[in-house]
Amino acid sequence: xxxxxxxxxxxxxxxxxxxxxxxxxxxxxxxxxxxxxxxxxxxxxxxxxxxxxxxxxxxxxxxxxxxxxxxxxxxxxxxxxxxxxxxxxxxxxxxxxxxxxxxxxxxxxxxxxxxxxxxxxxxxxxxxxxxxxxxxxxxxxxxxxxxxxxxxxxxxxxxxxxxxxxxxxxxxxxxxxxxxxxxxxxxxxxxxxxxxxxxxxxxxxxxxxxxxxxxx
Length: 216
Prior knowledge:
Strand order of the largest sheet: 7-8-9-10-11-1-2-3-4-5-6-12
Oligomer: single chain
Order of helices and strands: HHEEEEEEEEEEEE
Strand content: 35-45%
CATH superfamily: Lipoprotein localisation LolA/LolB/LppX
CATH topology: outer membrane lipoprotein receptor (LolB), chain A
Radius of gyration: 18 Å
């Protein structure tokens, strides 16, 4: 699960070395950033797929994420992760147990799936690759290369697929150093749906004390 959650949400402008980057890729990413930041909320269903180094499917999961500012809620098989921007609840559905932690947005080990939509904004060099169809969408493919402690990353390249018309991320493929791939395929993405703030707070009232592990 940590493979997914190592993705950190970082808001703000493209990193300061952007003038040294591929100008075509930068223009595409600037448009993508402008579009994404205009959304008040994002609700998305996506597939998370793991391929081995011989390109055989090892795992495929259906995920659903809701994002509102620095708040998020993620539903994956076996777990629901909820964060109000300060506190993070990780609920194990099978054990009916919840672990509560303090959320720190600058901690790269913290869980934040919203980075799927904005990971290009910090800590990467980028280069335009090609145009490619993803389903019915014509996409521009940007290659991202980690520029901050790349030796500590488990991947060497991220291929970002951006819908030419909608200016939205539709697919993200992480090329792993072991030869495998981690793929995120956005199935549906609905911006600006009304989501109440209490959707990002996990209600522990139905749980017994021994089902709650508070690590704050």
